[in-house]
Specification:
With 474 residues, the protein is an alpha+beta fold. The protein has 16 helices and 13 strands. The protein has an eight-stranded mixed β-sheet with strand order 6-8-7-12-13-11-9-10, with helices on both faces.
């Protein structure tokens, strides 16, 4: 059932929050042992919260003065809707692991900003989903729980860092989910799992990140099976009066000028060649956009070769400041350990220099993008990678815990940048972007592995991006 339809059934009383939560908890119990999408399932609390939602609904129905049913004015937007939070988000009373064996795992004393906003909108949290350590990587594997696997091929990764959430949505364990995206962490797993993934522009959704994200990279956004479902969740994430995305998502967008580019700011440091499947997805997306009445032309974008070093400096700064006792640092994954050490060895002046460069990079890039209404590129340069492929860990063979994390940190990072070379610059520029699953390697929707396109828009174009996704049939 689409999330919009489920929302309507809950608001009409056709379904109760209790039976809805019980349905999805049963799905999780059945499928999560294979998928590894959830780290923590909070079934008891979820059923208690669902009961409270049903009680509130019953009180409204009783107090309604009409015979046409209960007044909906007192119901929150997402009354009774189940979802899950990635395990970087604090949920009161639930352990936040950050995907790390090097931290003490204590229950969070209060809801983080994202959980607070969505709980106020009426959601029922079913638990916490799998993430990479500190959300640093494009795959969701760590040393505390089984890796998150792709529902379309369990030997493949579901991407990262919102990989557990994407796997859960794609497998029908939850109807939709909020993700967070600091370098592609919504769009990468959405593309890997065949979902619509929207990264809103900077400042639209309250992030709660603060000083830990000096470059302003991270933003929360929806992972969903359709543009309409994503619009519904975005309505809950965005403070009024800016919301209203669901009401307008089905409107046809005007004919657009779209620039197609394979240029990447990572190419100078990590030369890469898109796989045939990525190029096939790009061709399919272009044909669909042109059939819908848009004009797609080749766009040559110039990126400064200093970008890889500057982005890496900004991206890894927070892990250098993470409070980890020296005796527990041995529990960090090789990539985290390496980038933490380098971050600690950098001067404050080096970080300031990198941030200044990224601000100039933003101005230069946005100036070039302004020649078109939207920019088009593949969502990923490669098909979803095998579990363990980035790290060299042997849990790709199904064993847990992994027998080996012997992979080199720099090789791991290079592989990630070659896998998703069109993601991070969108965060640096603070622009909205959406991934749309336009192609399947088996030839038909749902067959083989999903591959998608990414559309990047100017500031404030979140609705337009969702309208284009809906226009393409998603």
């Amino acid at each position: 059932m689409p999330a919009v339809q489920l929302r309507d059934s809950l608001r009409s009383g056709e379904l109760s929050a209790r039976e809805t939560a019980a349905h999805f908890l049963a799905r999780i119990a059945e499928r999560n042992p294979l998928l590894g999408a959830f780290i923590t399932v909070t079934a008891e609390q979820a059923m208690a919260d669902a009961g409270a939602a049903d009680d509130r609904f019953a009180r409204l129905r009783k107090s309604s003065a009409t015979t046409a049913g209960p007044s909906l004015e007192g119901l929150p937007l997402l009354h009774g809707m189940p979802l899950a939070f990635k395990d970087l988000t604090d949920v009161a009373g639930v352990v936040t692991t950050h995907g790390s064996a090097a931290l003490e795992h204590k229950p969070a004393p209060a809801d983080g900003a994202l959980a607070a906003v969505l709980k106020a909108a009426g959601v029922i949290s079913l638990g916490k989903t799998q993430v990479p350590e500190f959300g640093l990587t494009a795959y969701s594997e760590n040393r505390i729980a089984p890796p998150s696997r792709n529902p379309h091929a369990s030997s493949r990764s579901s991407g990262g860092s919102s990989g557990g959430s994407a796997a859960a949505v794609a497998a029908g364990l939850i109807p939709f989910a909020p993700g967070s995206d600091g370098g592609g962490s919504i769009r990468i797993p959405a593309a890997a799992c065949g979902l619509v993934g929207l990264k809103p522009g900077r400042g639209l959704v309250p992030s709660g990140e603060g000083a830990a994200d000096a470059a302003g990279l991270v933003v929360a956004g929806p992972l969903a099976r359709s543009a309409a479902d994503a619009a519904l969740l975005l309505d809950a994430l965005v403070p009024a009066p800016k919301s209203g995305y669901l009401d307008a998502v089905a409107q046809e967008p005007r004919p657009l000028r779209i620039g197609l580019s394979l240029d990447s700011p990572w190419a100078a440091a990590f030369p890469f060649a898109p796989e045939p499947e990525a190029l096939a997805a790009l061709r399919a997306g272009r044909e669909m956009l042109e059939h819908a009445g848009h004009t797609v032309t080749e766009a040559g974008i110039r990126y400064d070769n200093r970008y890889p070093d500057a982005f890496t400096t900004a991206w890894t700064a927070a892990v250098g400041n993470a409070r980890i006792s020296p005796q527990r640092e041995a529990s960090l994954t090789p990539l985290t350990k390496t980038f933490r050490r380098r971050a600690q060895q950098r001067s404050g002046a080096k970080l300031d220099e990198s941030l200044a460069f990224l601000r100039q990079f933003t101005r230069d890039t946005i100036t070039q993008y302004r020649a078109w209404d939207l920019m088009l590129m593949p969502a990923l340069a490669q098909t979803p990678r095998p579990v363990g492929w980035f790290t060299g860990a042997t849990h790709g063979d199904g064993r847990w815990p992994a027998a080996d994390w012997a992979g080199d940190a720099d090789d791991d990072y290079r592989r990630q940048c070659e896998f998703a070379p069109w993601s991070s610059m969108v965060n640096v520029c603070g622009l909205p972007a959406v991934t749309v699953p336009v192609y399947w390697t088996g030839g038909q929707p749902g067959e083989g592995l999903p591959m998608g396109i990414q559309l990047v828009g100017p500031e404030g174009s979140e609705l337009l991006l969702l309208q284009v996704a809906a226009q393409l049939g998603f």
